Amino acid sequence: MSLFLGVDIGTTRTKVGCYDVEAGRLIALYSAPTEVSDDAWGGRRDAARLTAAVAGLLRQLLDDPAVRPQAVAGIGVGSVGEEVVMLGAGGEVTAPVPAWFAGHGREAKPHAGEAWAGVDDTFSVFKLLWLDRAGLLGGARTFTSLADFVARDLLADPSAPVFLNVSHASRTGLLDVRAGTLDEAALPSLGLSALRLPVLTGSATVVGHTSGAGVLPRGVAVVTGGHDHMCGAFGSGVRKPGDVYVSAGTSEAQVLLVDALPERVDAGIDVGVFVAGGLRYLHRATPSGRFYQSWRRMLYAEQPDDVMWSEVDAALDTVGPAGIDSDARTARPAALPMDVTRAQAMASLLKGLAVEADATTTRLGALGGTRIADVTVAGVAAGWAPWRRLRQDATARRLRFVAEPEATVLGVAALARLGVTGAADVPTRILAKDPAS
C-alpha cells in the first residue's frame, strides 16, 4: 500500500489528508481553524503557531487506524497563495505573516511607484513593502510561502536552502511568468535590496526527506505543492490546455489552463505557472464566498444549511439574478416583490453569482483564444443540489461537479505522488452528470 499525505493551509481551515493510491481516494482527513489574529489592516498569522498546528494534525492523521505510517512515501504542502514568511540568516521567523486578504498590501502599493500599478495589491511584493515600511522586517534575509515554510520545517536538514515553489511565486509579483524566472531587479527597485530571493523550485519537486525525529517517520519524501486553487484543479483532473476549473471557496477562483499566455491580458486577470505539465494559466477571482457568507449571516444566521437550501430551492424560479460587480465587490439585488422573503433575496444573490461565473468563463476563453465547452467545479457548495442546478441553469456549458469536497488536499497529495513516482493519474469522483439530481 502506497500512501501520500497532503497538507492544505487554507484561508479559514488547515487540513491534512492521506491519499491511498490503491483505493484511489482520501482514506483519512483532519482539520482545524487556520489561526488569524486581528490587526488594523485585517489580519495576520503566526508562522510558528501554524507549523505547530500542522504537526498536531499530522499526529492525529498518523494515529488514525486507516493509516499505516510506515507506508507513507511522501508528503506535499499547499497553501493560500500570497502569504509570505520572513526568515533570518539562521532560518528563524522574523516577522508576522500579513493575511492575503488583509489591507497591508493595499496601503503599501501606492509607495511602490507607477511600474507596479497593474499588479494585484494582495500579491506578496506589497506585503514585503508594507513590512519594511512598518519597521517589521527586522533581521529578515529572505522569505518563502507558508506552504514551503512548513515543508522546509519537515526536512531532516535544517540548513537546507530556502526555496519557493513556482506556483506560489506566481502570486508574489516577482515572477516573470512567461520566462518562469524570478526578477532579480525587483526588490532593489523597491528599496528592499537587503532581501535575497529564495531558490525557485517547481511544484511536485522532492526537496528532501524527513529525519524521523519529528512527527513523520524517517525517509518520507518532502515535496513542493503550490497555490491551493491550482492544487485543487490538479486533484480534480484539470490537467490540459483548455481545461477550466472553478474553486468555490472564500474567494471563488476560476482558472483556464493554456499552453502559452496571450500577448495582452486584461486588468483583473492574473497569470501564473500551473503546478504540472509546464502549463500557464489565466485566473480571475470573484468574492462569491464572502458575498454568500455575509448574506447568510444576515438572512439565515440561526438556520442550518439544509433549511436554507430547501427554502432557496423553492424560490429559485421566482426571482431574477442580482447584478454582481466583482471589481467593485458589490451586489445589486434584482427587482424583488414588496413582500420579498429571505429565500428570494438569497436566491437572487446566488443566481447573480452564477451569471457572473459564466461571464468570467467566457472572458477567460476569449483571452486564451479557446472555446470552452466543459467546466470542472469543486468546493463544499457543489455538494448541494440546488446550487448545482442554479449554476448549470446559468450556462450552456456542461458543468462537471467534483464529489470530493477536499479536492485541494487530494491534489497536494497527488502532487507528492507525482514528485516521488512520476505517476499523475488520480481517480476523480463526479457527483452527477445531471446537476439537478
TrEMBL record:
Coiled coil: none annotated. Signal peptide: none annotated. It comes from the Bacteria. InterPro entries: ATPase_NBD (IPR043129), FGGY_Carb_Kinase (IPR050406), FGGY_N (IPR018484). Keywords: Carbohydrate metabolism, Kinase, Transferase, Xylose metabolism. Belongs to the FGGY kinase family. This is FGGY-family carbohydrate kinase. It comes from Dactylosporangium maewongense. The lineage of its organism: Bacteria, Bacillati, Actinomycetota, Actinomycetes, Micromonosporales.
